Amino acid sequence: MVSMRSLIYFIKEALSNSKKNFGTTFGAVVTIFLSLLVIGVFMVTSMVIEKVVQSIESQVSISIFLSDEASEGNVSSLTNYIKSMPEVATVIYVDKEQALENFKEMVSSGIAEQLDGNPLPASLEVELSDPEQVQSVVDAILAEPVYAQVCDNPEDPTDSIRYGQQIVNQLFAVTDIIRIVCIVLVVMLVFVALVFINNTIRLAILARRKEIAIMRLVGASNGFIRGPFLMEGALQALIGAGLAAFCIHLMASQFLPQLSQLLSWLPIDYASMQLWQVYLLLLGVGLVIGLFGSAWAMRRYLKV
To answer: Model's pTM, two decimal places?
Structure first.
């Protein structure tokens, strides 16, 4: 168990060594800062994309466009078939007049006035109780024989059905690409940070080699000798991690509200994002990097 007196000694020695080797110490802090900044940006970006995907998934619905010649009996048969699926919450019939009214609400009045009559088809709007099952529901509808008799494009029935899963899949694809790129960058930067800390501790060991020899002669324990070097690596890492967490906080507080306004059509509660978890993780990862880098250096250069 480390006493308070020993801990204070470790801190004083770590600060003294950092001051003597300011160049390498500064390089180690900056490298850790950049490494953890990339990790933090990646985590916040992943949280934002996850919120967007969850919001879009909650709004996933299926629109089935009906032919003007579709019989009421066939439309009713298809409606009942869709309602019988456990993944479906509701099925709403939207006639041509309501479809035109909905279109007028979505676009400017000038565009709506240019329409010749009412070219919009009637439709069935399907809301799902489980949005993740949208593809299986679409496949089941396409396989139902009556669907081909009521859709507005019987030559290509798949053209008469619209659903939002494509957007969700594209978002996941973008997320995967971002994840791969960030993982590669993080691994490279963490390795560079370890090298910098290793060099910093190596220089500190060389500068204090005579003092270390004297401490060995008077019977100082291995832990007492190693303590200042572990503390030095930990302090460098915590400073870099703290700077990274501070920058992430500034960027998030400035960028997320603007993104919320830009994506106002998505009901995303950015305030519910647990950013404090990101900050704690950055500090934890930084501490691990500092301690591991110091231990790596001591194993190579400090024979105690």
So the answer is: 0.62
- Please report which helix (H) or strand (E) contains residue 123, including its range: strand 123-128
How do the domains of the chain map onto residue ranges?
Answer: 4-56+168-301, 61-163
Confidence category of residue 76, pLDDT binned at 50, 70, 90? very high
Instruction: Report whether 263 contacts 55 (CB < 8 A).
Output: no
Spell 71-96 as b/e; 16+ CB within 10 A means b: eeebbebbbebbeebebbeebeebeb
**Host H or E run for residue 18:** helix 4-20
CATH of 61-163, one of 2.30.29.30, 3.30.830.10, 3.40.50.2300, 3.30.70.3040: 3.30.70.3040
Residue 113: pLDDT over 70: no
